[in-house]
Amino acid sequence: MKKLIIISLIFICITPLSVFAQFPVEEEDEYYEKEWALGIMMNTYGGTIGGASVRFSKKFFYEHKITESLGRNSGKTKVTRGRVGEIENERKYHSLSIEFLNIKHPKEEKRQTYTGESVVPGKKNRLYAIRPMFGKEWIVFKKARKQGVQMNFIANAGPSIGIVSPYLIKYKDPARGVITKQFTKQDFLDYSDFIEGTGSLGESLSKASVVVGLALKASLSFEFGVNKRSITGIEAGIIADAYAQKVEIMATDDNRNLHMAMFLTFFFGGRK
Fold it and tell me: Which of 271, 216, 272 is nearest to 241 (CA)?
């Protein structure tokens, strides 16, 4: 998975040069003010599907007051608000998004138990990140009318709300039957031959705790499609989550409070 994302990022970094050479910038698509997109993410945190995202973008405008006289001798004025910045900021957008990620430890490795289920030996907790983020988007070059390709640079920041839920293990105790509990490092050594699988996700989330931190993201997005009001594309870049304390994902001493990864998101949406 990590190699796939790295190869994709290299390809994406090379693609803009050839795309820019083939598609004339002067043939720009028609104007739009708002855009929304849903995305499915792969990342080097691990897993085929590492998360999901919802993003909303709005054109950047300045606002100013417009004062108009209602008559030379009336002494009355009318104040309205107007928008400026269409020309100066035609390639700049505000961006609001929320992302859901599953953060894994680099040393996680699944193994099958004697029942055929998969477990991660040494894992102590699951870490899920909820990331409401605010940022800016800059259009590097606009979508050509006929060929339909656009590249944006996106920078986002916001809180990272970490949901830490215990990784519950089911094992067969010779004296007490099947027991479900959170394992320590020693438990994995003592009961490795008796492990049946993992406990339910619902039971794990019912015992979850919360840790708060900061999230940062920088990426390039490539939008494709022939329909002017719908978009599909890919977004690739780097994400980072820094928490106020270390999260014990593994029952070892090499846990951390800073998690960084490369990601690749496939998205679709619309604009108006």
Answer: 216
Work out the angle at residue 230's Cα, subtended by the Cα atoms of residues 229 and 233, and round it to the nearest 5 degrees. 140
**What pLDDT does 254 receive?**
84
> Using an 8 Å Cβ cutoff, are 40 and 54 in contact?
no
Kindly report, residue by residue over 102-134, the tens digit of the pLDDT: 999 988 889 999 888 999 999 999 999 999 999
Cβ-based burial of 11 (10 A; exposed 0-12, middle 13-18, buried ≥19): exposed
197: left (phi over 0), alpha (psi -120 to 50) or beta: left
Nearest Cα to Cα of residue 231 among 60, 36, 34, 97: 36
Range of the domain at 90: 2-271
Burial of 70 (0-12, 13-18, 19+ CB in 10 A): exposed
Name the domain count of the chain.
1
The per-residue pLDDT for 87 is: 45
Please give the pLDDT value at position 21: 42
What one-letter code names the amino acid at 177?
Answer: G
